[in-house]
Write a structure and sequence with these properties.
heterodimer; A: alpha+beta; two-stranded antiparallel sheet; 52% helix; B: alpha/beta; Rossmann fold; six-stranded mixed β-sheet; four-stranded antiparallel β-sheet; 6 helices; 28% strand
Amino acid sequence: MKLHTISINNLKRRKAKMAFLTIGLMVGIATIVTLVTLTRSMSRDIEAKMDEFGANILITPQSNGLAMNYGGISLGGVTFDQREILEEDLARIKTIRNNKNISAVSPKVLGGIKVDSHDVMLVGVNFDNELKMKQWWRIFGDAPKVENEVLLGSDASKVLNAGSGDNLLIKGEGFKVAGVLDQTGSQDDALVFASLPKAQKLLAKEGKITLVEVAALCSGCPIGDMVTQIAEKLPDAKVSAIQQVVEGRLKALDQFRRFSYAMAGVVVFIGSLIVFVTMMGSVNERTTEIGVFRAIGFRKSHIMRIILLEAALVSLLAGFLGYAAGMGGAGLALPFMAESKDAHLVWDMTVAFGSVGLALVLGILASLYPALHASRMDPTEALRAL
Amino acid sequence: MALIEISNLKKQYASGDETVEALRGIDIAIETGEFITIMGQSGSGKSTLLSVLGGMNHPSAGEVEMAGVKLYRLPGEKLADFRAENLGFVFQSFHLIPYLTAIENVMLPLAIVKTGSKAKRAAASQALERVGLGSKLERLPNQLSGGEQERVAIARAIVNNPHILLADEPTGNLDSKTSDEVMALFRELNAAGQTVVMVTHNPENGRYADRTIHLRDGMVV
């Protein structure tokens, strides 16, 4: 017989009351787990999408130029004092402090060129990086693998009347069309893509880069900071962040997160109240019992230990059940809440331990006053008979 | 020196605007091994006297000295420790813990004692055997008769070998036959050296005692 024997036996006897207490706290914990897990899973989903959405930092040469376009109609531009990015400078991008957040660096060289008898825009790219960045590209045929292969945008393919496997003549040199892009609805449709070194040679821009697209992983990555860091490394370049729709979504998610936490706070408060009221009721119900304990020599601290141990045991159970129920709830809700169908539930040990820990802390805190109240009971009044 | 010395004991309660004098200067000495019954009408102060004697009710004035210790001068929770080590209580309504078996109820005072589980169980088992319930160790209180519950309460009171056994109307809820059996048990314990102080309103119980103290209006008469 030890003090915990009393606590455990009491819990076993008052099954209904303890079940009510457990459920009260469990609902609170489950709500928190569901909301936290949903928010995390949705963040992960959107972050994954953001990577798919391509570049979010653009590096262009510094120039004192003014763009002359409005409503999609371009009239060219007034550009003077044009500087250029050198290929050898690109290595410096990877030396920034947040280099771990860089997913891909895709340098490009652009220039107008005659293909057969048509004027087209030739873009030199590193196909490995480009394909990683533009995961939405669908290619009929293959991506170019050797220097004398090109990839055509859907409109370019129509204008040049060339498809996968056909040959084109560019500046007197023969090129094979490795593949044709499915329509993207973007400027890519009108372009002819070649490997970077080949395009540089054709455009007479060896070692030079027109622009660099950088894809940064957004999990905890401060795009603004990265822009500053890259600008410091490349003082002759203009570095700008591409504002994407996804950022708006992240903001919405942040609002959802805040709302979730506020809601979780309210539920936790209600859960704590349930624990408090139930424990207080239980203590008052056990007045005589506590009087007996005090009469036979239990100290106030012994009484508190009995009550708090009961609270701790119930809270632990509520924590485990709440975590399981919360993850179950999140699993059921995620398909309705997340944008993509393949969004995965984030299983995080921090949430598991956190929910059990939180249940324990809440249960004990809410039972502190009832336990103190019990320990301060006057044994004579508690027993009345004496 | 007597085992218990009570001198000029007074206890006042505030009841609304009035002050009730439950005990008005009581002097009693009880020797080791005595069997004392305290009798008196309702409101005579006998239960108050027992609670003061049991270290649970601070007197308004006077002194209670037990085994050389001035009870109400003990600091902090030392009074609780004193109760645990020196006193055994038997309550009128038994006050057994309903979710503990007979042997667990008897082991209750040992829950705060640093002894091995086996030793605690052996002591509780022995106490239950002394009161004739050696075969009902694992019964819950609601599986026992009133007399048996009283015996479990007595076993719980003696399991820690207290200096003094305090009992408040132990036969108040029992029929006369069971009352006699319980009183005989108290007598038996007393014969084995146990000091017993019992509050009762039943004059019949007085015949088991060495001495009866009569109270009226908070004073010994």
